[in-house]
From TrEMBL:
<dbReference type="Pfam" id="PF00528">
    <property type="entry name" value="BPD_transp_1"/>
</dbReference>
<feature type="transmembrane region" description="Helical">
    <location>
        <begin position="23"/>
        <end position="50"/>
    </location>
</feature>
<comment type="similarity">
    <text>Belongs to the binding-protein-dependent transport system permease family.</text>
</comment>
<feature type="transmembrane region" description="Helical">
    <location>
        <begin position="269"/>
        <end position="291"/>
    </location>
</feature>
<keyword id="KW-1133">Transmembrane helix</keyword>
<dbReference type="GO" id="GO:0055085">
    <property type="term" value="P:transmembrane transport"/>
</dbReference>
<protein>
    <submittedName>
        <fullName>Sugar ABC transporter permease</fullName>
    </submittedName>
</protein>
<dbReference type="InterPro" id="IPR051393">
    <property type="entry name" value="ABC_transporter_permease"/>
</dbReference>
<keyword id="KW-1003">Cell membrane</keyword>
<dbReference type="InterPro" id="IPR000515">
    <property type="entry name" value="MetI-like"/>
</dbReference>
<dbReference type="GO" id="GO:0005886">
    <property type="term" value="C:plasma membrane"/>
</dbReference>
<keyword id="KW-0812">Transmembrane</keyword>
<dbReference type="InterPro" id="IPR035906">
    <property type="entry name" value="MetI-like_sf"/>
</dbReference>
<keyword id="KW-0813">Transport</keyword>
<feature type="transmembrane region" description="Helical">
    <location>
        <begin position="80"/>
        <end position="106"/>
    </location>
</feature>
<feature type="domain" description="ABC transmembrane type-1">
    <location>
        <begin position="80"/>
        <end position="290"/>
    </location>
</feature>
<feature type="transmembrane region" description="Helical">
    <location>
        <begin position="226"/>
        <end position="249"/>
    </location>
</feature>
Length: 306
């Protein structure tokens, strides 16, 4: 039986003591770890954003000069727009493919396990390794474009803004679609078969069952995947560094890469800290808005009434 005592949910096992939710002590290790490696560094970054510092000596307080300069910086404004474009393209391309692959991988098709294992290979590689790999594959002289001039023209895919953003979107999808596929695969396997049986009784075919049963049951997983894509897209850096270096010119310079340029190429760690704080605040705000707007924070089950 289930009882409610002193505001805490408890359950009683037959012949045993009541069992309640874990106390706060269970969360202490994770809380301390998060505080030391997330909150404390973020506080120092916030303080550094109001200083002028080249990485040597003592930072000098300069008020809001860094923030005023960023607000007037055309490259910073452009980088925000490019970041938004990359995030939107990543979501639009990765979400439908991940859902389809995840639902397929959750089935019982012949050779499914082997094909799924091949699909998940990019998960074993780091972003840097994947970027180096694709940098070689799209080389205009020795890569695939050089062998197929009828398809790629001069083969310089990174020579234009559209080409550079297209390559970043493709490589990002190639790397992260398997990860999101795993999320949807697990969620699809948790869908009760009785729902599909009821849909069949109502005359629903495969396509109708997919949209009326599968997609609604994947709702919470879709929100989780969306938040991960948003945060990952806003903070993407190594792929841009290795594949395009922000080029041509600043055509593919996203905000995270611009932060790197300010800090480690321009030795302006104060402004770079301001950019880092902007990214942290934007990513956190968008994630909270998505969670609240979708009702995910209430953890409502998609199987209520079963």
């Amino acid at each position: 039986m289930t009882t409610l005592a002193q505001g805490k949910r408890t359950s009683r096992r037959p012949g045993g003591p009541s069992v309640g939710r874990p106390g706060f002590a269970w969360a202490v290790p994770a809380t301390v770890f998060f505080g030391l490696f997330a909150i404390v560094p973020l506080v120092f970054v916030a303080i550094l954003s109001f200083t002028s510092w080249n990485g040597l000596g003592t930072p000098q307080f300069n008020g809001v000069d860094n923030w005023v300069a960023l607000a007037k910086d055309p490259v910073m404004i452009q980088s925000l727009g490019i970041t938004v474009v990359l995030v939107v393209l990543g979501i639009v391309t990765q979400t439908p493919l991940s859902i389809l692959l995840g639902v397929w991988a959750a089935g019982h098709q012949k050779n499914r396990a082997v094909l799924s294992a091949i699909c998940f290979v990019p998960l074993l590689l780091s972003s840097a390794a994947i970027s180096v790999l694709w940098r070689a594959l799209i080389d205009p002289n020795f890569g695939i474009p050089g062998e197929l001039p009828w398809l790629f023209g001069n083969g310089n895919l990174l020579g234009s803004q559209a080409g550079a953003i297209g390559v970043l979107t493709f490589v990002g999808g190639w790397q992260f679609i398997p990860f999101h596929t795993l999320i949807y695969q697990g969620a699809a396997r948790a869908i009760p078969p009785v729902l599909y049986q009821a849909a069949q009784i109502d005359g629903a075919g495969t396509v109708r069952s997919f949209f009326n049963v599968t997609i609604p049951q994947l709702r919470n997983s879709m929100i989780t995947s969306l938040v991960l894509m948003l945060v990952g897209g806003l903070t993407a850096f190594d792929t841009v560094l290795i594949l395009t270096a922000g080029g041509p010119g600043t055509a593919s310079t996203n905000t995270a890469y611009y932060m790197y340029q300010k800090a480690f190429l321009g030795f302006d760690f104060g402004t770079a800290s301001a950019i880092a704080l902007v990214l942290a605040v934007v990513a956190t705000t968008i994630s909270l808005v998505v969670v609240r707007a979708t009702g995910y924070d209430k953890m409502r089950s998609t199987q209520e009434g079963l």
